[in-house]
Design brief:
2 copies of one chain form a homodimer.
Chain A (H helix, E strand, L loop, with lengths): L10 H13 L6 E5 L12 E2 L9 E2 L3 E4 L1 H4 L8 E3 L5 E3 L11 E4 L3 E3 L5 E3 L9 E2 L10 E3 L7 H9 L4 E5 L3 E6 L4 E2 L10 E2 L2 H11 L3 E4 L7 H14 L2 E5 L10 H8 L1 E5 L3 E2 L5 E5 L2 E6 L3 H20 L8 E6 L3 E2 L5 E11 L2 E6 L8 H4 L3 E5 L5 E2 L4 E6 L3 H5 L2 E5 L3 H12 L6 E5 L1 H10 L5 E4 L11 H7 L5 E15 L18 E4 L4 H12 L13 E2 L2 H9 L5 E5 H6 L3 E15 L6 H10 L2 H10 L2 E2 L2
Parallel strand pairs in A: 13-16, 13-17, 14-15, 17-21, 19-24, 22-25, 29-30, 29-31, 33-34, 33-35
Antiparallel strand pairs in A: 1-12, 2-11, 3-10, 4-6, 4-7, 5-9, 8-9, 18-20, 20-21, 22-28, 23-27, 24-25, 24-26, 26-28, 31-36, 32-35, 32-36, 32-37
């Protein structure tokens, strides 16, 4: 079996090699477009005004055009009367006749019955006249080469008589999805089918960056087929992206094909995710082999392809700003790679806090949930908790600043409240993270969240939540708000093939657990202890998931026989359910946050009929 | 003659009235689109995953799928051999068979000739396997209502089996240009024709904000015609913008028509520019009467129509960030209005400085030249020089930070250098302002510009520039760099109808002057003095312009008989030219700026053949 190793070239060096290769014999393509439709395009040459604007002396207001010297001497005390041949009535924009040089405002005139005009003050020459060229003079450069045309510039060009503009042609980026298992989007894939969604992500990014994308049909993992597709795309596009097959495995042909038809300058970059990328050129077309994992490929798109597009567009594509934030959780990183860590951001008080998200290269939702990206430099072992870091924003600073931060135990109720909030038109957003009930207690204690969702069983009293609040907030600082009752139980495969009736029966089964610190885990551990069961005998005890639906999905998928979770998750996955307890799912609120507008709205929605209805549809909730 | 007065309602109140009127019976329009093309759209409802992603247990790498328990005990010292029926070769993304639960990386295997695999370490269950739902679990909310769909979200939807999305319909904004003198874009308008460019500005803005625009034909100032056009547009659009005719003059019908067909809630807003705006509604269509002056209308678009579009789009359209800057020049403002002042921004050292631009409502280039907008509150008399102000950015902060600031005397040479700079691909930009040669001296002295362009005649010695530098920078701090020789003279109308031969002849003519502090003005005043002429006898001495082309344009337009300026301007406007002097147009550079990369490039281009060629084409320049 073939296996080659990749290079590990630092990103900056890789870009330097790639861009110097691409710049050889590089020529910008241009076209001429109608000025009226030119906004957003990039000028290929400087634009000079062809005419003045205004191109004649125009009245700046409604009034009468006069000769200034005819008005000299007029005052409140000694008004002057202008004869009918001494003035011409003009509206804004009208020509000021050659023998006139100023305009008196209509509001400043008293009309006599004779048709003559009485005026109460003098005007000086050119007063209230927009003289020729006031805005634009013929011959003036209105904009330099490679300027991005704004709406106002579009207007200025037309005002200057420039009815067409030579602009840089839109960059055409070809996207070739590859892979034997890849299928077009569907809601009913066969086992082993991989839904092709990368091309949609990348073509949307290209569009966002001002380019045009051309998505080709999926190509199977046959070298000749892929080669044909690449050569066709090369002829039709400025840049070609080949999706997947960029590594060095047995079906990875990208690198070989580019080598055979052109030149490869980089194969393997010292970044994570994103390492297995290929950078090269075939004739005058830049070719990039993107990794198959979406997050890896997004990183290559953002760090390399965006700048490539800037080069081809003649204009720097704007990059996102950064903010300073305090890292909430240590990030461990390899010395070998520059790492791109997706983080959520929140603003509590005056500081931004950053929490790292799932780092899997295949987890595209780590990107959709992310508010920003933290870069850990190469040759660094990581960044410790509490460090102030610089984070590149993926959302607007305003949106992040206005977000209500809810953390703790996972329940779909939080998503539903977020949705209702949005539907009611509130400007603030809701940002949630799943760190378990104990994580919520810590977050509220440290002031890192507005609200914490908890369902913590006190093994001694059999009560929920209250004793924890008393213990961890003995000197106050937090308030517990009633949430909902939630039915917890054991989820088992449809038909209950293992015949599980109670917690005691799971010893002979495979189990999927929740993460340490989650309320469900606290409950499970409590039940094990109560029943004198040994956790080391539970197969899968260390297989931890972060949400109820993740547990349900694994049971439904056959990875485990059972797991604990809420009724609604079992129902959604059509699993059988053995009820164990009705727990209290409440909200812990930092005292200082009680006056926060978004927090008030959250509690309002929590008690609303609308939410109740939604939860009743899902089942397993109670409201007393 | 009819004349009504407008209201003067504070902006916030006007918006409140307008938005509460619009919100009555307001319903968002929705449509279903293919997810692959949904990026940039706004979700009309929450999106829940229909399937898990991955939807089967998938290998996370190239390797062999095994049962973890078969690997237990393997180590470097005591490798294990897996029989052929104990593993299955898998590539990344392949199904992990039901009877296997983990994957060993291809790199960690030694193949035996028998086809068996030697392994050197154990794996735990589910290691290197992307379990069902690792990324997305069926039933999970992927995005809430009214979320703007990002490229990554587009991918997440498809990964979750969501192939179409219900989104908010693109907002359709109708734009009706009006006016008897208004003509479609042309480079050859007749006298009195006003080129219709506002609709291009506004439709581009609408597009930038995610809406769709529909520009109607120009409507003459006939009430019934306009009424018909408005009713047609109302039926076809969500929002209708009527351009011009929004005031209370004799041909201003906007307000009356909206009143007759629907309701007007505001006519006249306490802002400047932008006062004569009409806000109303006809049936369920919001109707805005925009002022005819482009800058006034742009302000209404930015301050009102953008938020209106946000409402109709279900999603806040992002607004520009602000920066703190030190105001370089006092801004006087009326107590009656909230004022929007266009400013240029520059960063010198660590501080941003803001310089107010021309405040004419008709000067669209004040918007194209502006880097930001400064708001002077209502009830304020203005803001004094040196105050720290908050400026809304119209360009990216990065672009402003990287701009080379050149101030002082006006010459097209600066624009040409800017263009060459851009064409050579430098990332920094050039920002120039025309404050005259003396303004340049002050700016360099105060550290408010990198370079100052000067041509200052010393009346005593007849020499240029040097004595000024010696006087104003007696203790150093600035360096004078040689620029070009420039032919100054008297520009007169073609054929020289007034028979002007020298400065002495201008006493019987109308003159157009340059502003105080400009080098050309210094020269003119010097010549007057030398010839014992009285400036009070020069007709038009107080008619001041800021550029050579502006002076030339007024002479060509017949507003004046003559004026001083450079040969290239006379040539461009086909004027006759009486040569007076060849002056030295040099550059004053702040000592600290000499090491600035952009300054170095500027001087490099200043001495380049490319610039020389461009200037020779224009004429009147010399390079010794």
């Amino acid at each position: 079996m073939k296996h080659n190793y990749l290079d590990n070239i630092p990103l900056e060096e890789a870009k330097e090699r790639f861009f110097s290769l691409v710049k050889k014999d590089f020529l910008l393509k241009t076209e001429t477009v109608n000025t009226q439709a030119s906004a957003g395009r990039v000028l290929a040459e400087a634009v000079y005004a062809k005419i003045c604007s205004p191109h004649y002396n125009a009245s700046a207001m409604d009034g009468i055009a006069v000769r200034a010297k005819d008005t000299y001497g007029a005052s409140e005390k000694e008004p002057l009367i202008l004869k009918k041949d001494q003035f011409v009535v003009v509206d804004t924009g009208d020509i000021v006749p050659k023998d006139k040089d100023s305009v008196i405002m209509i509001e400043d005139i008293t009309w006599l019955e004779s048709g003559e005009a009485k005026i109460f003050s003098a005007v000086h020459p050119w007063q209230n006249v927009r003289q020729v060229g006031e805005d634009i003079c013929m011959g003036d450069m209105i904009a330099a080469s490679y300027t991005k045309i704004t709406p106002a510039l579009c207007g200025a060009f037309l005002a200057g008589g420039v009815t067409s503009a030579k602009v840089v042609k839109k960059v055409v980026v070809g996207i070739i999805p590859t892979g034997d298992e890849i299928v077009p989007p569907t809601d009913n894939p066969k086992e082993g089918d991989i839904i092709e969604f990368n091309s949609s992500i990348f073509s949307s990014m290209i569009k966002e960056w001002g380019g045009e994308s051309k998505v080709y049909s999926i190509v199977k993992d046959k070298k000749q087929l892929l080669k044909n597709a690449v050569l066709k795309a090369k002829a039709e596009c400025d840049i070609v992206l080949i999706l997947a097959g960029s590594s060095a495995g047995r079906d990875d042909y990208t690198c070989d094909i580019i080598k055979e038809c052109g030149e490869v300058c980089v194969h393997g970059i010292a970044i994570k995710p994103g390492k297995p990328a290929v950078l090269g050129k075939i004739e005058n077309t830049a070719v990039v082999g993107l990794p198959g994992y979406p997050v890896s490929a997004i990183v290559i798109m953002r760090e390399i392809v965006r700048d490539l597009l800037s080069l081809y567009s003649g204009c720097q594509i704007e990059k996102e700003p950064t903010v300073k934030a305090v890292l909430q959780k240590r990030v461990v990183s390899s010395l070998k790679y520059k790492e791109y860590v997706r983080v959520t951001l929140g603003k509590i008080g005056k500081k931004f806090v950053a929490v790292p998200l799932n780092r899997g290269a295949g987890v595209v939702t780590s990107f959709t949930k992310a508010d920003g990206i933290l870069v850990v430099p190469q040759n660094s072992e990581g960044i410790s908790e509490g460090t102030e870091v610089s984070v590149t924003l993926l959302k607007s600073k305003e949106e992040i600043e206005n977000a209500l931060i809810v953390t703790g135990s996972h329940d779909v109720l939080i998503d539903e409240i977020k949705d209702i909030m949005k539907r009611r038109g509130y400007s603030f957003s809701l940002s949630s993270s799943h760190v378990g009930s104990m994580g919520a207690v810590t977050a509220i204690k440290n002031g890192n969240a507005h609200l914490g969702a908890i369902h913590l069983l006190d093994g001694e009293s059999g009560e929920y939540n209250l004793s924890y609040v008393q213990k961890y907030f003995s000197s106050g600082g937090a308030v517990l708000k009633k949430g909902v009752g939630r039915t917890q139980g054991i989820m088992v495969q449809k038909g209950n093939p293992k015949g599980i009736k109670s917690i005691k029966d799971i010893e002979n089964c495979t189990y999927v657990n929740r993460q340490l610190g989650s309320g469900t885990r606290v409950l499970f551990d409590y039940l094990l202890k109560k029943n004198n069961m040994d956790k080391n005998k539970i197969q899968g005890y260390r297989n931890e998931e972060f949400t109820h639906t993740a547990v349900a999905a694994l049971i439904a998928g056959g990875n485990a026989d059972c797991g604990m979770g809420v009724y609604s998750a079992a129902k959604m996955y059509d699993l059988d359910f053995i009820e164990i307890a009705t727990e209290k799912y409440d909200f812990l609120c930092h005292e200082e946050s009680l006056e926060n507008e978004a927090v008030k709205v959250f509690f309002e929605i929590l008690e609303s009929e609308e939410l109740k209805k939604r939860l009743e549809m899902m089942g397993g909730y109670s409201f007393e």
